[in-house]
Amino acid sequence: MLEVVDNGSAPRLVVFDLDGTLYPRELYTGLVLDVIGAMFVELRGEPPDRAAREVAELRELMRTDWSRTSATAFVLAHGVGVDQWREYRDAHLSIADGVRPDERVVRELARLRAVVPIALLTNNTTGAAEAILDRIGVGARGFTAVVSADDVGGRPKPDPGAFRVVLERFGVDARHAWGVGDRYDIDIKPLRELGGAGIAVDGPADLPAAVDHLVGLLSSG
Whole-model pTM? Predict the structure, then answer.
């Protein structure tokens, strides 16, 4: 089911999330939890039982409060630097291996890109994001631009600064930007705080309805 947060504007830019939005979140959660546990042991020297308890905390947050839960924000809050997390994740996490082609995602993104610029904003590194996009079948070329963790410095989502990077790259005011993602607090709320709008989805199955809504706004505007 879609959750539409409207501000009365037609989009001049649509900013998509990747994990859980363009492929099912179930492919992401188990893998990222394993990597975080290993990282806490290896980089922070935590006893395995303590790392397991912290991972269990994140697992429960993902289960009960997915819309507000960011793995990146979690590891930063537990004392891992943003560059450490990016490097460790890039070296040890390969979500792309489990992703399958999805013609629906390819079709819907192409349908929207035909009428408005679309960007991808992800806390993945560029290499990881491109590998996932290639496996889906859309590739980085399916977006007008891809903005990754490598481009936003120390301000990944849900920091509004990550969205400012996208807005500045396109020269679009926030009130004319719409976000699309599966976590309201991570993918929609930061843009909303800047004046934008957005659509929260449950995953790729909701993309046709989200695109219908955005195309309708353009048609009526």
Answer: 0.91
